[in-house]
């Protein structure tokens, strides 16, 4: 007996409902990770949505069929109304995920969130040891706090997902990272190699691992995975390799406006959390309902279907599989978001990916040379 | 090892089973993921309550679907698969 159904269709032919809602509650964050996916000019963002506005968004999303809800940021814990939003979300029937750095968390909050109905807390780490972790995070106390909070999350009975963003400065730590996760009792470990958007694109040369580093890391993860399977462990390792080393692009977000809907701190609605960098006018939940945003707005319909595709995507027999890749990556690397994602070896701009690979083989920059994500650095990006 | 029929299945901690009207299906929700279940998988998981053993679940389903004949093999196979996927645990 197979258990899975095909995906449903929503209110409009060919457009399914937004099953995944990501609520970026704030861009404020105590950490300064140089690969942050927030926009470079985040400090320009005014006026976060109010509690009432978020509640309205949650209700509208649930009515449309959203089932997975992520509270993220920035650091979502800086929102004082988080317990209220969790309770509302759970009562609406969402599966609620809190995606946090662990800073600002306490045992009391972990338990209070559980009582409010929170389903899952994902704690992110920057490395397997305090020195490197704190250097990347730009915070001296981060590592100890993260360890304490991971233990508290486990203690409170949540399923535990630990997330590590992997780059050239910590990719040699795979074994140590996984072993730390095993000791903490993680259920899932995400080893997510940097995706080069936002701050990570700005810092790409200083973050991207070389091919040799990547192959070594992959082999280590595979060996560890075999050991886990042999010992009957249920801990799952999810290793996300960087698409810069692929010859075909990823099916980004499973297609534009297909499953994912992100609402940014100021209410801007986006098909993914990076799309804000595109020269497209995106709607705001303060002005329109989520339903009209998802089904009718020009922003969300911009890259649905395939009639927008130029060559080589237009006549490509793989376009139904990868949708031409990632629009943000096409924009960042070619200046035109309509183009094929340059990761694709059929793209006329694939040389930009090859050049990045070559640069990664020769990169020497230390951690201290990266541009850290903080308010002062962010102001540089909109003052010009 | 106890026979499968005598074991009691329960959802793994952090997994939630619920009906989703927008998808017209039962789903299984877990950290950052969702499986949309077909009708038979939904019917079986609906009976997984951490109280009753597999034999009881088979009996309940055979009562619900009298025309389906013996369901022991199908249900057992599905539950073993669900355990391998780490959706459920047996005790």
Automatic annotation (TrEMBL), chain B:
MF GO annotations: quinone binding
Keyword field contains Membrane: no
InterPro entries: PQQD, PqqD_bac, PqqD_sf
Pfam families named in the record: PqqD
BP-aspect Gene Ontology terms: pyrroloquinoline quinone biosynthetic process
Pathway noted in the entry: Cofactor biosynthesis; pyrroloquinoline quinone biosynthesis
UniProt name for this protein: PqqA binding protein
Originating organism: Marinobacter vulgaris
GN (gene name): pqqD
């Amino acid at each position: 007996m197979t258990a899975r159904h095909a995906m449903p269709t929503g209110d409009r032919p060919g457009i399914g409902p937004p099953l995944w809602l990501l609520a970026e509650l704030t861009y404020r964050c105590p950490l300064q990770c140089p690969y942050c996916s927030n926009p470079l000019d985040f400090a320009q963002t005014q006026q976060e949505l109010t509690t009432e506005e978020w509640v309205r968004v949650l209700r509208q999303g649930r009515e449309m069929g959203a089932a997975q809800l992520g509270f993220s940021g920035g650091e979502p814990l800086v929102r004082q109304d988080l317990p209220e939003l969790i309770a509302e979300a759970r009562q609406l029937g969402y599966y609620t995920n809190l995606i946090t750095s662990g800073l600002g968390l306490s045992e009391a909050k972990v338990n209070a969130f559980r009582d409010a109905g929170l389903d899952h807390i994902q704690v992110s780490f920057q490395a397997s040891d305090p020195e490197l972790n704190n250097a990347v995070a730009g915070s001296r106390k981060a590592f100890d706090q993260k360890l304490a909070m991971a233990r508290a999350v486990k203690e409170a009975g949540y399923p535990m997902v630990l997330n590590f963003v992997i780059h050239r400065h910590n990719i040699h730590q795979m074994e140590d990272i996984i072993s730390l996760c095993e000791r903490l009792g993680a259920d899932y470990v995400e080893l997510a190699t940097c995706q080069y958007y936002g701050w990570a694109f700005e810092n790409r040369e200083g973050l991207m691992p070389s091919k040799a580093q990547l192959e070594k890391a992959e082999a280590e993860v595979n060996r560890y995975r075999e050991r886990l399977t042999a010992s009957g462990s249920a801990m799952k390792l999810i290793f996300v390799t960087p698409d810069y080393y692929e010859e075909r692009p990823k099916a980004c977000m499973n297609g534009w406006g297909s499953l994912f809907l992100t609402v940014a701190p100021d209410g801007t609605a986006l098909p993914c959390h990076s799309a804000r960098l595109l020269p497209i006018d995106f709607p705001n939940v303060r002005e329109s309902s989520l339903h009209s945003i998802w089904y009718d707005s020009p922003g969300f319909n911009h890259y649905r279907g395939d009639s927008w595709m130029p060559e080589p995507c237009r006549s490509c027999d793989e376009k139904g599989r990868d949708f031409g890749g990632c629009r943000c990556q096409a924009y960042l690397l070619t200046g035109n978001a309509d183009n094929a994602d340059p990761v694709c070896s059929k793209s006329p701009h694939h040389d930009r990916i090859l050049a990045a690979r070559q640069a990664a083989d020769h990169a020497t920059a230390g951690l201290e040379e990266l541009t850290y994500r903080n308010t002062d650095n962010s102001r540089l990006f909109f003052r010009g | 090892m106890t026979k499968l029929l005598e074991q009691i299945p329960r959802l793994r901690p952090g997994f939630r089973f619920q009906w989703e009207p927008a998808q017209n299906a039962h789903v299984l929700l877990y950290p950052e993921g969702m499986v949309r279940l077909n009708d038979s998988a939904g019917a079986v998981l609906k009976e997984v309550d951490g109280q009753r053993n597999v034999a009881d679940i088979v009996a309940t389903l055979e009562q619900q679907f009298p025309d389906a004949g013996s369901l022991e093999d199908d249900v057992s196979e599905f539950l073993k698969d669900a355990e391998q996927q780490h959706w459920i645990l047996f005790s």
